[in-house]
Amino acid sequence: MNSQPADYEPTRHRDRGTWLVEFTGRVLVVCPRCGGRALVVPLPGVAAPKYFSELLFQPRRLACADCGVVANWMAEERDGGLVGAVPGTEDPFFRRPLWLQTRCAGRNLWAYNEAHVAALADYVGARLRERRASPTRSMFARLPAWMKTAEHREGVLAGLATLTALAQLSAPADRSDAAYERGDGPRHHGSLYFRGRPY
Ligand SMILES: [Zn+2]
Question: What are the structural domain ranges in the chain?
Fold first, then answer.
């Protein structure tokens, strides 16, 4: 009767310890000049990091294909060390509003990039969630409660589908109504620890 392989469990989610930082290698942001979609990526020529945590210290470049604006970011030096970026609800490097934002269940649903959206959809769509990873680092363990409830499952999945569609758009006129708000993320620079409730 059951033709599915034994390990086919579409509704089961296993947290392998995915960390929000993993998605900071590519961040879609609102362009500071034209209001379209710009991209924040490691500076060309920078070696791939050995550890995900290094992503918070690697030089970045913001570039907009629409208007041509380019900006660079370097980690600040302080007391002989580098001060890394802090992941939050804005772009962690240039502090630009994220391009991938939409209103959902009265809250703001956001993501750094397409892979981030897909990872969230896998988690939110699962009926059974296995938690094995450290709750202090795990992106999924740190998700706000409203995103985890069965009541909001369909709404959040619809919101994530909206973000997937937004990722394909880049014109200033395509900017999400939710991508204007600022100041809802951690404002603190200079700490290596998460503040607030980024996910
Ligand atoms: Zn632009």
Answer: 12-176
Ligand 1 centroid from CA 96, angstroms: 12
Work out the burial of residue 129: count CB atoms within 10 Å of its CB; fewer than 13 is exposed, 13-18 middle, 19 or more buried: middle
Contacts of 146 (CB under 8 A, 6+ apart): 105, 107, 152
Verdict on whether the full-model pTM lies above 0.70: yes
Q: Mind listing the pLDDT tens digit for each residue in 116-128?
A: 999 999 999 998 8
Q: How far is the CA of 186 from the centre of ligand 1 (A)?
A: 25
CA distances from 65 to 19, 31, 68, 71, 130 (A): 29, 10, 5, 13, 41
Nearest Cα residue to 158 out of 113, 109, 112, 114? 109
Beta strand pairing status for 100-104 and 12-15?
unpaired
Q: Residues 171-193: pLDDT tens digits?
A: 999 999 999 855 544 444 433 33
For residue 10, name the pLDDT band (cuts at 50, 70, 90). Answer: low
pLDDT value of residue 197? 44
**Ion ligand 1: residues, CB < 5 A:** 31, 33-34, 36, 64, 66-67
Instruction: Give 84 Cα–ligand 1 centroid separation in angstroms.
Output: 26
Q: What separation in Å is there between the alpha carbon of 169 and the centre of ligand 1?
A: 13
C-alpha of residue 112 to centroid of ligand 1, in Å: 18
